[in-house]
Amino acid sequence: MSNSDDPKHWNTLDRDLGRFSHIEQATAYISRPMVAPGIALAFIALAALGAALFLGQSSNTIIVVVAAAFGAYMAINIGANDVANNMGPAVGANALTMGGAIAIAAIFESAGALLAGGDVVSTISKGIIDPAGFAETRVFIWAMMAALISSALWVNLATWVGAPVSTTHSVVGGVMGAGIAAAGFAAVNWPTMGKIAASWVISPVLGGAIAAAFLALIKWRIIYREDKIAAARRWVPFLIAIMVAAFSAYLALKGLKRIIKIDIQTALLIGLGLGFVSYLISRPIIRRQSEGLENRNKSLKVLFGIPLVISAALLSFAHGANDVANAVGPLAAIVHATEFGDFASKVSIPTWVMVIGAFGISFGLVLFGPKLIRMVGSQITKLNPMRAYCVALSAAITVIVASWLGLPVSSTHIAVGGVFGVGFFREWYHGRRAHKFALAKRDDSDIPVAEKRRRKLVRRTHFMTIIAAWVITVPAAAILSSVIFLILNAVA
User: Could you state, in order of their start, the residue ranges of all structural domains in the chain?
Assistant: First the structure.
């Protein structure tokens, strides 16, 4: 009998094959978490290579190549952290799947950055420091490099711990820290910094208040009506009109800078006109969509689903148009300084630099975005399409109001503040109803502590983590940037 006919031979072969199978499974399990960082590193390398090919051989090519790599790294981190604020509520409300949200956000973020991204950006982050305070171009270049590196590292750390932070504030802190290290405290525009510090409070409070107000309106005029469907037919077109008016004004004001400059009054008129048109169009659509729906809250979610998806897409477009400058602003300043040998508060952004920012944001969203999308969408408080729609409305309206009043605000703080506002309003509302109708037939003092904690509709651990991250973003980025600048200046 040959060895191949021996049962022991087959048993040995099966054991060996089983071992190989287990090794393959273990290798795949271990290597899976490394796929996303590997792709990100490949994109960063491509960005650096593209910068080298574009610039050719020059004395400062190596500096721009390194800056392009860190600009791509910053863009990836913006996609991983900031975009979650736009798509999180829609995913948490089950209006979009995670894959659908990532696809829509990637397309609209890139479109906003490439089509409507400003071709002139304030690289000194809205007047944070005075360029005249720098002694020479070399010092300015290292300051911008330090700001780029520090802000990217801080946003990366915040994403890792699960805290949505303002990338704008990260860049502001980075520029401020490098400016102080390079030119002293006198170089900082402290009144502007005071306004930005005020926005830490203004942005989330205003966003939360507006989101809570819209949720109260929906509850009062639709949810707690005897005929919910009839009420929805009257009010949903009105809410859609508000959404269209807010986003039209927002995009006219912020998203069309490359084509035409529009003042706030004209933007508001455009918004009102398009809002009225959308009201006329949406009325018959909502009426048709509501036919045959049962008179219950679950049916109302259907009517808010499509408007919520559209609002999330528009918010992503506007975000790409505005926040791409956070990734490429310092990079554009370095390119300008190395090319012309001087520095200015405003410079033109080359197309290849804008492409790095746009695609970097999309890569960051696809590779690392789901973690923050889930956190914002479902782990802070429970969202449904009505509540998520209130958050989206709040984001657009708050930015318009802030622009009108001349207040610097953060889109991250507004969106997350809107989620907090919806959650805290529901806590207050349910607590008020429980007290009013005496659901438990006893005083609140008799309710066990564990039960009171269970009734909290906003997770306090996430609330405290996010607030702490917001407060320390600017000082942390500034300290990190100043240290990096001192190292770069000493080594170079």
Answer: 35-491
